[in-house]
Amino acid sequence: LDSLDLTVEETMCLALIGPSGGGKSTTLRLLAGLETPTSGTIRIDGNEIAHEYRQLREYRQRVGVVFQAYNLFPHFDAITNIALPLEKVHGYSRGRSLEKAGMLLEQFQLTNHRFKKPAELSGGQSQRVAIARAIAPDPDIVFLDEPTSALDPEMTAEVLEAIETLIESKKKLLIATHQMGFAKHAADTVAIIAEGKLVEVGNSSQVIEYPRTARAQKFLKAYLKF
């Protein structure tokens, strides 16, 4: 990233879009506390994200992250993938963590798959388990890093519907995505990032339908052409 300066006010769902390799995922990882910047500051809800390990660890416990490769524990079944972090990181009892995990699996229509390991799940099912795991401790913000990039269209629809339920429940989301239609439909605000710079930011419909900058126009013209 090159002196990226992004300010967003009163947004429940922010979508980061732009060309591959342009800096979307790096921006998301910085905001999620998974990377630390070499210079500058990051503030969310007025609070600066500290670089000191202990404070950074505390911040990470208050956010949820969903990765494009799911990152589930391969040797645990679906319900344990959700329950174990609640127990080991957030101090839930074993019974309470399993109860919460069971409720989330039901919410995402995965009850019949609760004892399946990731290798026995489809990509869409695995990503929905990952989303359930991310929201289980009721985080302040959920970060989703291209959550549908490894999925076919049918599985993509499953995951986007799951994300829509989070939006409807007023959960704060930040999504890096190539799904332009979803970004326009679901996000309040869209930011275009390319070559490590912020190209444009604003209302999702305005940015996608009527981009102001030449770089944004070039990206969207190429992406929406087909």
| Average pLDDT level | 92
CATH homologous superfamily classification of the domain at 13-73 and 140-224:
P-loop containing nucleotide triphosphate hydrolases
Report on the biggest sheet. 6 strands, mixed
Helix fraction, binned, reads: 40-55%
CATH topology of the domain at 13-73 and 140-224: Rossmann fold
Overall form: globular
By DSSP (H or I, 4+ residues per run), the number of helices equals 9
What proportion of the residues form beta strands (DSSP E)? 15-25%
What order do the SSEs take from the amino end to the carboxyl end, as H and E? EHEEHEHHHEHEHEEHH
CATH class of the domain at 13-73 and 140-224: Alpha Beta
Distance between the termini: 29 Å
Radius of gyration: 18 Å
In terms of quaternary structure, the protein is single chain
The CATH level-2 architecture of the domain at 13-73 and 140-224 is identified as 3-Layer(aba) Sandwich
Beta-strand segment tally: 8
Low-confidence parts:
none
Q: Can you list the strand order of the major beta sheet?
A: 4-5-6-1-7-8
Q: By helix and strand content, what is the structural category?
A: alpha/beta
